[in-house]
Amino acid sequence: MRGNGERLLTENELKFNQWMTKKEYHIPLEKITKVEVKASHNLKFKFPLKVLRIYL
User: Fold this and answer.
1) Where are the domains of the chain?
2) How far, in Å, CA of 42 to CA of 28, rounded?
3) 38 Cβ partners below 8 Å, 6+ apart?
């Protein structure tokens, strides 16, 4: 899953509300294996913004 939206971290999960599609995702924290903050996505730099990558 990818896209712009808002993220909310709770005790048990990461909630992601995608702006364009209006979809809501609930990701249990135990499913997350790795988190990175990158300057690019698919070799496209997002300066001055950053890209949050969450691996399941």
Assistant:
1) 5-55
2) 26
3) 50, 51, 53
Distance CA 56, CA 53 (A): 10
Q: With b meaning 16 or more CB within 10 Å and e meaning fewer, what string describes 44-56?
A: eeeeeeeeeeeee
User: Per residue in 21-52, pLDDT tens?
Assistant: 999 999 999 999 999 998 877 667 766 778 88
Residues 1, 18: Cα–Cα separation, whole Å:
10
**Cis omega (within 30 of 0) for bond into 28:** no
